[in-house]
Hints:
301 residues, alpha/beta, FAD/NAD(P)-binding domain, 7-stranded mixed β-sheet, 5-stranded parallel β-sheet, 8 helices, 26% helix, 27% strand, oxidoreductase, Pyridine nucleotide-disulfide oxidoreductase, flavoprotein, FAD/NAD-bd_sf, FAD/NAD-binding_dom
Amino acid sequence: MIYDCAIIGGGPAGLNAALVLGRARRSVALIDNNRPRNAVTHASHGFITRDGATPAEFRRVAYEQVLRYPSVKHLQTEAVEVRKIESGFFEVVDASGYTIQARKLILATGVKEVFPEIDGFYPLYGKSLFNCPYCDGWELQDQPLVVVSESPTVYHTAKLLLNWSKNVVVCTHGKSSLSDEQKAHLQSKGVVVKEEPVTAFVGHNGRLEQIRFADGTELPRAGGFVMPRFVPAAPFGERLGCERMENGGLKTDAWGRTSIPGLYAAGDASYFMPSQVVFAAADGSRTAMGVNLDLTEEDFG
């Protein structure tokens, strides 16, 4: 069997693309390794009707709805290789060697975060340390917060955080990423700026209590945000020769088409930021419409 479309990635983008294509009566192979990036998150926020849903509940409901459409097949496996073959179709090979073919391919493989290497971070991540103020700022409102980032964008993140708490400390983790003017501006708003490297997050039962610096000092904090660097979660776009944007995402047009004919990208794999469930789901829907449009034109002749 040759599927109309294969989708690699079962996050919000891939799931919503499968839903739209299933409703368009297209045959779809949804390839999902069941390792969602947001699995550590206690709840997803900012998505109307889904605000506060756990990632597990979101996926349960999503699959229940997607698989109502008989033309959608869920392959719970790991895609390890993608090839474009002479027919112009795509072959996807999983870890066991099983191969499928599809006329079109959507990469909804997302991104992965690369965090600064700071002791004690991972036991607190998803509980009192996060990476997105829009996703988790409400739950930390009015608490003493920290934002740790080596990027100059920390200036804008710190300003943003003042919407949720007036007690904010900025840590540049040993980098001189803020200008003197920016530091003065933040300090005029009550934001403390510390440029010493952070050596440890100290806390218990998922709750941050202290930040420890390289000079041995500690600072009490109740929660905060550690800003990661984002990189592609899968190499398929690069291996197939897709054009990329400056931020590393796959370059697409208004319908999710990449520079490789028949290959599409949706969600974080394409735009990288902002990395939110609602954006990814919407982008999956848009890309699926692009796929169906192109298949329709081909079928119509």
